[in-house]
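Continuing the series of single-chain predictions for the mutant panel. This is the parent chain; the variants come on the following pages.
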Amino acid sequence: MKSKQNYAARLCLLVIGFITVAAFNSYGQNGPASLTVEDYKKYTSFKIESPEEDTYIKFESTYILDREAKPYVFNYSDGVERKIYVYKMLKGANRDEVGTMAMYAAPKSGKTIKVCIPGAGADKKVWDYYIDELKLNGEQEKGFLSTLAFVLSREYSHEHANAGKGSTVAKENDDYDFCFPGGALVALADGTAKPIEQVKAGDKVVAFDVNSRGTRQTTVTGVQAHYKEEGIQITKLVLLPTEEIFASADSWTPATPIEIESTGNHPIYTKDGKKEMRQIEAGDILYHFDSSMRGFREYRVVAKVLQEQQLINQVYNLETEAGNYLVNGTVVLDK
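Parent structure:
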């Protein structure tokens, strides 16, 4: 029995090796950066708090994990559910793609394993490290190699079918890399505002200081524009100040509702912390800058509208030194 298990493990390693080399030698990666052993360890040691919800993760201002699809789910005859999450690995200010990270998870036991499939530009040391990690984890965790081999086979087949355009199953319904529609007003440090599509790297904008609950100045370090011919779905929130909702009839003065629109996955800063736009519900509290008060007021979400009939072709996102900025006066987070 043991010899059969060893044979199966060796076969899985062979399949994984073939698919990995074929996929990345055929199509390579975009950008000049490459994965190093140090990078590999950084990616695999980073703890992903909520794998189901965290589709886009940036850490240490350099590394990005971008999950393109729902996890692969396996239910073997041993009754153990296994999942594999697939992330693109991006690195540096230019977001160069340096490989793919696969995270194996067995929710019942809490076991997780992360391996990084290097891009074509990685040197031999990184590939050696990757193979050693495969072998070690394959020996220690039953089901790891077979599930990974299946996932890489599927990813490679989708990649091959799309002639190296990087298309996976998720890309057919891709919404993970988009942000705000044109016209969204970004608050500038000089007290004015301008549409997000006109903002440039180096511009000084207003940010939210989490510690003081006041404003601070920050610098835009990057601007991304994304285009999708078939259109991008936008979610709209309608906000009113909390005083508006709870004021007595005698003292009530109608306030103008605030609206903010973005794709469903963009992170927003709420009273309960970071939430994606699609996770926000009526009753959640956001922070909106009131120029007359020269400070932030709490605004409650009173309506959430998924604008299915109004698709946007181009959307924008900013990166800032502070990690947040104001859109239509409301605090939003860098993607």
